[in-house]
Design brief:
heterodimer, A: Phosphorylase Kinase, domain 1, Aminoglycoside 3'-phosphotransferase, Chain: A, domain 2, 2 domains, five-stranded antiparallel beta sheet, two-stranded antiparallel ribbon, 9 strands, globular, disordered N terminus, B: mainly alpha
């Protein structure tokens, strides 16, 4: 096992025992855990699916386990709280049953939520959409879910959620991506061109910030034959411009080759925007366009950062080495978004 | 001079081994890393074939944009110079932005021909 393998934090058996022990204490009844298996694990966290038997009933559950407390982007308790706030706002999320910040049970902090059946792997979702023809329904539902999230009163946000309601997300993002481009290991004039476009087309700040997810896309959703079932991976949640959240699922890398379907290779902009607006979302075309360019460019610098971490030895990984050769893909996508008239 | 196989032939052989026998022999998360490694070897194979000509063409485009006075600079310095010009908020001359954009697209397409062929089959909405 290497440091890059998230399952290194615990074996299946010790994880099952730890979850059973915690659930037994939390629920005050004997809980038996079985059928434990790893779901598609991200680089930073394990998603473990299991059955909990309590009082003769079987409950389908999932545990999201962080390898160590220091890798968390936001605290696991805040992430779980954001999910619950989103759920109350009508966003489809797996219901959270409990949070544990003690490393002593499964080797890291975790939270437990309902296990929702369905496809989570992007290419499988695309195959299902091709078979059922429901892609446009799914993107309409994603638009609906985002609008519901953005409609939540910011005062409902859990304490500690990054950002503030009166922050300036445009200015903040512009400064961040400018610094990231300056830190590239080689000058990339295409990125400088994109930065210049962003500066020349700087929109007004939104009136106020909202809770945003920041990573809604094909790959962070659960889809069944009837459509969207849940939005996953709330670890990047923070305050921000709703249009940033709306722009991210439209980026090209989540289409997996089907460029005719802007949102996740599933459906076009029209049903997505209709879903957003029907649920009360306020669409701002100028900021939408600006954020599409910004998030594309920023993801390019993110890939460059992965390669920097590989090259300087902070995180040696052949995958991160390869990320450096993907930077140019984002430069290409960005240049297509900023074509001169 | 080295005997055959030449560099590109060897790299193609290594890539075929990785995403053939090696991929079939391993399981779990290592499969993904082996696929990535095979892809990277194929990128290097294409770079050995086309990299030098790409760089020379990019250099010529940059000199055309920046002016012949900079003709002695190496490619990285020329790229830095264009980046600095774009970072400078002074307005560009009429048509200059479009000319720079067009040149950048040509350069990026050439880089993609090495790192991800056919990625440029999309030209925006």
């Amino acid at each position: 096992m290497t440091a890059t393998d998230p399952s290194a934090a615990g074996t299946i058996d010790t994880t099952a025992n730890g979850l059973a022990r915690w659930l037994t204490e939390a629920w005050g009844r004997a809980v038996d855990v079985s059928g434990l298996r790893e779901s598609s694990a991200g680089a930073r966290r394990r998603n473990v699916l299991f059955d909990a038997r309590v009082d003769g009933k079987v409950v389908a559950l999932a545990a999201t386990i962080l390898p160590t407390a220091e890798i968390q982007i936001i605290d696991v308790a805040i992430e779980a709280a954001v999910r619950s706030v989103a759920e109350r706002g009508g966003v489809p999320v797996p219901h959270v049953h409990g949070v544990c910040t003690d490393d002593g049970y499964v080797g890291g902090p975790f939270f437990i939520s309902d296990r929702i059946e369905g496809d989570t792997i992007a290419r499988r979702i695309l195959r299902q959409a091709a078979a059922t023809g429901h892609g446009e329904i799914v993107v309409n539902q994603i638009g609906d879910a985002l609008a519901r999230l953005h409609a939540i009163d910011p005062s409902e946000a859990p304490p500690g959620l990054p950002g503030t309601v009166d922050m300036q997300p445009i200015t903040t993002a512009m400064a961040g991506v400018t610094e990231a481009v300056a830190g590239l290991l080689r000058p990339e004039p295409a990125f400088s061109y994109g930065l210049r476009w962003l500066r020349d087309n700087l929109p007004d700040e939104p009136a106020s910030c909202r809770i945003i997810h920041t990573d809604v896309r094909n790959g962070n959703i659960i889809v069944g034959p009837e459509g969207l079932r849940a939005i996953l991976d709330w670890e990047g949640s923070r305050f921000g411009d709703p249009m940033e959240d709306v722009a991210w699922p439209c980026t090209r890398m989540w289409r997996f080759g089907d460029d005719d379907k802007m949102i996740g290779g599933l459906g076009g902009l029209a049903p997505y925007r209709a879903g957003y607006e029907a649920a009360g979302g306020v669409w701002n075309e100028e900021r939408f366009r600006w954020w599409r360019v910004l998030v594309t460019l920023r993801w390019g610098t993110g890939l460059a950062g992965q390669t920097a971490a590989h090259l300087d030895g902070r995180f040696r990984s052949i995958v991160m080495a390869g990320s450096g050769r993907r930077v140019i893909e984002l430069a290409y996508d960005m240049l297509q978004l900023v074509k001169p008239d | 001079m080295q005997y055959r196989p030449d560099a590109t032939e060897l790299l193609a052989d290594v890539a075929a081994l990785l995403d053939g026998e090696v991929l079939n022999a391993v399981g779990g998360p290592l499969q993904h890393r082996v696929r990535v490694a095979a892809n990277l070897v194929r990128i290097v194979e294409r770079e050995v074939r086309a990299g030098a000509a790409n760089d020379a063409a990019e250099r010529a485009r940059l000199i055309e944009l920046l002016g012949p006075a900079d003709g002695d600079a190496d490619l990285v310095a020329l790229r830095a110079q264009l980046a600095a010009r774009l970072d400078d908020p002074t307005p560009l001359l009429a048509g200059q932005s479009a000319a720079i954009h067009a040149a950048l697209v040509v350069t990026v397409r050439a880089d993609l021909a090495i790192s991800k062929p056919s990625y440029d089959n999309w030209d925006g909405e």
